[in-house]
Amino acid sequence: MLKRVLPLIVFAALALLLLAGIWMRKQDETLGRNPSDIPSPLIGKKAPIFALPDLHHPERVVSNGDFAGTPYLLNVWGSWCPECRTEHPVITELAKTGKIRVVGFNYKDEATDALRWLGQFGDPYSVIAADTDGRSAIEWGIYGAPETFVVDAAGVVVFKHIGALTPQVIEREVIARLDALQGAGR
Question: Whole-angstrom Cα distance, residue 60 to residue 157?
Answer without folding.
Answer: 25
